[in-house]
Amino acid sequence: MKRMKKKERWIQHYSSFQKILLVGEGDFSFSACLARQFGSAVNMVATSLDPQEIVYAKHWSCETHLEELKRLGCRVLHEVDVKEMKRHPTLINMEFDVIVFNFPHAGHFPGFCERHVELIKMHRELLKAFFESASDMLSSGGEVHVTHRDDYPYNRWKVEKLANGAGLYLKERVEFQKKDYPGYHNKRGGAINSNKTFPLKDCYTFKFSVSTWESEEEEDEEDDDDYDYNYDDDDDDTISSGSLSDEIGWILPVMKRLHVK
Ligand SMILES: C[S@@+](CC[C@H](N)C(=O)[O-])C[C@H]1O[C@@H](n2cnc3c(N)ncnc32)[C@H](O)[C@@H]1O
């Protein structure tokens, strides 16, 4: 009997033939969108930082996405920290054509707003470690994609410079349109209003690949002088924000469900 060749399917930058690792997923709707378009997710690994119970508690909408991903053959992993993912027991021997981190964010801490230098430092540390780990997990010609807001204060993260420090260079910066990914809902994450979306202004997918040249720039200069210290900015436009009680309020029902006393 003649064997049918599988047809390659694309959605934007992503192909069903590529090995794709998705990290820092919220409700897994981005992964599910790709899988649906491909008709198969056997080449995909979709991951979250939080353990499964917390993902369910934060994102009630994850259930159908996770079911769909598993039905289409996706490997789903929880508790994958991008800072050390290259040493993760399942990922350690794997290589990927594309590693995707959409809207990275280090979380929110009471008293800090998105313009605050300490929070920007945390975001930068997260991305620096992510790039270092990701650059060791790419197949030949592979790419790291970070989708990020490029307006102030998010442009203070200096994403490109962080990637350069890990030997990755910018191939392309493409405008990101949510409508190009049917069913995708960008999530705030964090602990307050985790399942809510946030405004997507000036968003781009930054596509990096392994550099063949040494950047002549100083890789990781301190740019703190440029930062705008503003402690009382209550910018509702932020990816994640909330008070301490808001931050931890959600944990009680989860602990009850897990029978933690
Ligand atoms: C603003 S949310 C975006 C969620 C999702 N990528 C989306 O587009 O809807 C930021 C995400 O970064 C994740 N994150 C933060 N630190 C992380 C880490 N060290 N490792 C993996 N994911 C992390 C959070 O769990 C959260 O899901």
The unreliable regions are: 222-236, 241-261
Distance between the termini: 60 Å
Instruction: Tell me what portion of residues adopts beta-strand conformation.
Output: 15-25%
> Please, what is the average pLDDT?
86
Total beta-strand segments: 9
Bound molecules: S-adenosylmethionine
Give the overall shape, derived from the CA principal axes.
Answer: globular
- Topology pattern, helix = H, strand = E: EEEHEHHEEHEHEEHH
Largest sheet: 7 strands, mixed
Spatial strand sequence of the major β-sheet: 5-4-3-6-7-9-8
Radius of gyration: 19 Å
Helix content: 25-40%
Description of the molecule:
- With 261 residues, the protein is of the alpha/beta class.
- It has seven helices and nine strands.
- It has helices at 29-38, 52-58, 62-71, 117-135, 159-165, 244-249, 251-257, and strands at residues 10-11, 14-15, 20-23, 44-47, 75-77, 96-102, 138-149, 168-175, 203-210.
- Mean pLDDT is 86; it is low at 222-236 and 241-261.
- Bound molecules: S-adenosylmethionine.
- Residues 23-26, 30, 49-50, 81-83, 102-106, 126, 186-189, 239 line the site of S-adenosylmethionine (SAM).
- One of its GO terms (cellular component) is cytoplasm.
- InterPro entries: BMT5-like (IPR019446), SAM-dependent_MTases_sf (IPR029063).
